[in-house]
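S.,

Sequence below, as promised.
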Amino acid sequence: MPIALFEVLSTLIVALALVAMARVHPWRPLLAEYGILAVASWLGEESCVGLYRFYAYSDAWHGHLHLVPVLVPMIWPVVILSARDVSRALWPTVGPWAAAALVAFDASLVEVIAARAGLWHWAEPGHLGVPVLGILGWGYFALGALAPRRRGLAVVTGPLVAHALILLTWWGFFRWALRGELGHGGFAILGAATLVFLFAAVRARRRGTMMTPRVWLPRVIAALLFFTLLVWTAPGDPWLWLHTAMIAVPYLVVTEIRSRAAPRAATAPSR
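The prediction came back faster than expected:
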């Protein structure tokens, strides 16, 4: 897919996703939170690219803010905010941990498709060309950005927590393990994550907790961007399609197609 077409589609889909989210959140606080997360995303991404040199963006992108394309910090806040809405609907007592886990789960698909399309590239291989730590990075950021009660602190806590967890898990584990091309081992890791989310989704469904259209619509809109990129870039790659299916299954379990009608108020019997 030409990068210019991807950029146009990205801008359109971000706008549509925000419109869909505005059905749940008032516009003013939604745009304020989106803007704060966009700034925090740029700070986190810019510092990660500059400090670690573990990945880099293609020069074909139009409009860079130094090392990071402008559209990147525009896209990820939609992923993070919609993940938070899903986690609040399904697991309201877990807090930002559930949303961060969902962001990392979704990031696994975003990363492998985008890397295959050449939007960015990693210094090391891993699962379908993406190291495991690279997949976890946006989950780390989301945890830090969603944790503080004061919205504006996300500009500080998002990048700081991301760096702290990247360094901790790199030196504590990933520097020594799960490096190189993972092959089927990458699908084993993804399969374990899918089973965890599937178990949590089944339990939520049994409690009668589902994702209503107001919750899942922004996610579907955002997912269309990378689904289109997959169809355009690698329509015949069975491994990318398998990865996509594994990500989709837990969500399908808790997706409610139609919102439940509100119960009618009782009326006094007529005489």
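The chain has a mean pLDDT of 91.

Coffee later?
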